[in-house]
Amino acid sequence: MxxxxxxxxxxxxxxxxxxxxxxxxxLGIGSGDRVALWLPNLPEWLALYFALARLGAVxxxxxxxxxxxxxxxxxxxxGCRALALDPSFRRVDFAGILASVDPALxxxxxxxxxxxKGEVSAIKRRVDYGALARHTPLGVERGTLDSxxxxxxxxxxxxxxxxxxxxxxGLLSHAQDVVRGFGLSGRVVLQSLPxxxxxxxxxxRGCLVLQSAWDAxxxxxxxxxxxxTAFNGTDAMIAGLLDTTSxxxxxxxxFLGYGAFDxxxxxxxxxxxxxxxxxxxxYGMSEVQAFFARRHETEPLERRRVPGGIPVSGVxxxxxxxxxxxxxxxxxxxxxxxxxxxxxxxxxxGDRAATERAMTADGFVRTGDLGxxxxxxxxxxxTRLGDVLRLSGFLxxxxxxxxxxxxxxxxxxxxxVGVSTAAGVKPVAFVTRKPGAAFDEGALxxxxxxxxxxxxxxxxxxxxxxFPATTxxxxxxxxxxxxxxxxxxxxxxxx
Length: 495
Description:
By secondary structure, the chain is an alpha/beta fold. A hairpin with a 5-residue loop joins strand 20 and strand 21 (379-384).
């Protein structure tokens, strides 16, 4: 593992984690206790994670972009006894944000672990990470394969996040499947994705080159300097790499898994292809971890760009259920994706009712995603089920209409939502235009009407400067709910 000027072997990391485990045990941290890791990509993140696993304790991964209200809510509801942060990190004022948290939300927090120089206030006990790393190593390990090991927060934007709890068994099994499924053994992996999200956490395999926070120019330099041969990332990150990294260096990477979050980067697969970089679509979610499935690099470009693919676990299962009738659907039919496999979460920690709603009686998780299974054993993700449109009695993925709108030479990005009217649900499109292009709503409707069924043609096409979005550890996500609200107001005003 390479972190700045430091080179750390996994033997060194293992020994350090034993020492940290011994120190945490002396502080009273034991089996089942929760400790928050509110850290950028640092070796200390991984050492603390493995130390907690040795104790049978649970690491609560917190997004470094979260601020006081979000931090306080997670620490309080998950019952964290300790919190690790880096007050010296140049990009985030961790100490200042912690000081802004309502003290009532920190009432269960006993210890703050400082992984860098600096001070924090109003906490019962502060300890230096360096002292933990020099402690007497833990003797008898207390964690088991069935111990809870990590909590990741869901990225919902309309309510408090749920706490997805994974066991050591599930994380270990999935790690082995990812190494095999992505060929990571012996590869040099650029770890730019944040460890606090499942996308970054599940990529942390092989020889890691850690980047504490994403910066495209720095990432390109790391790829060149360390001979990186593996990387996965969001579409925006990959676009940055294409701009900063030589084709010679990029061609060392056999293929690259990507998450499509930014509609303006719809042509990314083609751009990468011209630079000698093969992109493959992925599928994952906090409940089954990232990299649950992937496209194969030998597939045609049009298939590689579609999220989904073959599960990396040979025993994982995917099926599709009709969201209206509850019936299991056949090959090629669209419905809600349900998943089962060794990477499945144990539960939503502290929320039994939510766990029961999410799980079927036979152990599948309801994803809330619309998709279909193909006859070759792969599956296709189409859209979030909450975003799917039922138009004239048919289920329609907004992406179908969005993709067609983006084929128009004036359009840069498109988002389509449904609005209930007296005549049923109608599609409304929001678009951004390319620099210097004119906007003509009538021409865009005609463009759609030339090749789409009449019920799929948006009743309104609205020009916006940008789409409302929220940031998660995995990238930028469009807030469809806000667009639906705007669309409803627009249709109401127009009668």
